[in-house]
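**Backbone shape codes:**
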Amino acid sequence: MRIEIVPRAKDNLTGYCDRLGMTQVAAMSRMVEWFSGEGEVVQAAIMGLYPTDIRGDIARLILEKMAEEKK
């Protein structure tokens, strides 16, 4: 798989991986595994698919649902 990454994000990823002593492939593999395991609502929020004016409400609803599932 190939990804497109802007220079600033690449620099941040490089710094993160350097601090943790892990490869960028390992970090990206973990992020993709995590993202793919999330529900559609969370994935859409991460991808910025909700209108800006309701993003706060979406985040609150997601957190409330997560709290309910832990009970």
Notes: The chain has a mean pLDDT of 94.
